[in-house]
Predict the structure of Penicillin-binding protein.
Amino acid sequence: MFMHRKQLSSQLKSLKSQSHLTSRQKIITILTAIALSLIILFSMWIMRKGKIHPTGASITNIERGTIYDRNGRVLATQVENYTISLWLPSLRNTKQGETEREREERITEISNILGPIVLWPQRELYEKILYHTSNTLILLRRADVQIKERLQAVAQTTHIPGLQIDAEFSRSYPQGDLASPLIGYLNLDSRGGEGIEYAFDRFLAPVTVAEDSAPQHSYSLELTLDINLQASTEAIISQAIRKEEAEAGVALIMDAKSGEILSYVSLPSFNPSFYQRYTADERINRPIVEAYEPGSVFKVFTLAAMIDARVIDPGETFCCPGHYEQTINGQTFRIKCTAEHGDQTVADVLANSCNAGMAYFSERMSNDEFHDAIGAFGFGKKTNIPLSGETVGLLKDTKDWSARTKPTLAMGQEIGVSSMQIMQAATAFTNQGIMIKPRIVKHLLHEDGSIYQSYQREEVGRAFSPETATVLLSQLQHSVETGIARRLQIPDLAVGGKTGTSQTIDQTTRSYSDEKYIASTLAFVPATDPQYIVYIVIHHPVRSIWGSNVAAPLARDIINLLVSHVGLPTSSTQVIQLNRAPVILQPEYVSNSNTLPNFEGKSLRQALHFFTEDQLYYRIDGAGFWVSEQFPPAGSLIRPDMTIRFHSTPVPIKRRQ
């Protein structure tokens, strides 16, 4: 009996202990659940307030912002397309009381109606409806609004069960491959892939959520590009690449005072709508990504640095023996000059691209002084233009210099630069020694076209004194008038410039290639007070390798474009004094009826005058100033929030009656 009680007591203690542990576990479980619930509720509240959002979130109902050139021409825009599909079970299933023959006749009728609209042969569509392995049959992707409206009209008279019209956005690039390395593209996730599309993705297609879950609108961009100038410049460089059998070409035109890039050519190019079909080399944004030895163009900057440091007197002379020779630690090395020039002024050293003169002049500065003077131009640093993948180039520390480094640097070797770095450095000559940051974007725009943010002229820093700028501009003009850059000469227009030819590194041997060169030219117009800077780089030309033969004539052709395109005055330009103000005719106003007028044959200016109502919208495709087509057509009933599409052409067409 005693033993039985002892065993019972032990069992009771054990049960009590187990009951106690179970209660603790229950309490812990309940508290954990409450804590997790509070965390989830708090997170949901925070997300609703717009403080955080899940990674990769996007707002699908926001139309991606448009990219314009400086004159409002569309470079990239969002287009609403439609996916047309059939939910096949709705068509295949026999209706109540319907025979098999009646079902087939019904499907035949629907195939005959849909086929011409979605561009399918009726018999093929009929068989697809009957035998397609999936329940959903995609009839057409990226259908336009005309097809959608035709289907909607048919659906009002003929019942087509399972017909689905789903709206979707796609990106349209009306100018095709024009400036595409700059503009970029959208990747498969509909986010910016490269170029402006990538760099301004957060503005063009915001992913954040504003207060009270209201969608945040997108912004549009107005670039500094002039698309007409861009098209003409690309044509010039493209033709030169074919003629010279070159691999690639770059052409940049900049407003010399503001830093605005007017033309940004990087060839080869690609169609951003089908970017996957192109190689990475075809899509490369050469003006900012590629670093190369600039060759003799760089003498403009090193000579300015030495004159500003007052180690050279612009009035002194130098005798070129045809080479530069130096002995250090018992070892002698020699650098060949382009010729035995004999006695020359400092201006002649630049005009004749004298290697010996530049090398001997460089001895007058210490390594650190020379390095810092080059760095003051921004070489070895990014320009921070708002584009991804920009190179810093190459400017080695003086501790890594050899005995040859300083004299070869003075000639544009042993340094890596980008085309955009050259452009930024060149602005020092056009702004009294102060460099201006290159600009490619003018404005961020609200949905209504008003300016959200402007990008203003930005001074980077001083490279040299105003006096040095004046001296170098005079020497650059002398180079065109009497030197190697004489192919830049234009009648009645003073041009300053410098040409360059440089070797490239063979990636296999890691030494200079005997076959691949870079030909370049830097030009300033007008030379005395430059308003524009032009820089041309032709990679690996075959027929001729010299910058003076290859790049200088191209720069001259582009300057002639500026004369006609922007009205760059020459010495023969006549200024007409008007005795009275000219009469500006108002654009023709169209009728205020409830149907659309006929815009075809009118100028865009006349057509757009119609859009005085806030509830009407328009979209322009094509490249021109005259309306060649419109949709909806004339006579269509005007509906609130309707969008009227115009296709434009450069020349007027005969107006349809």
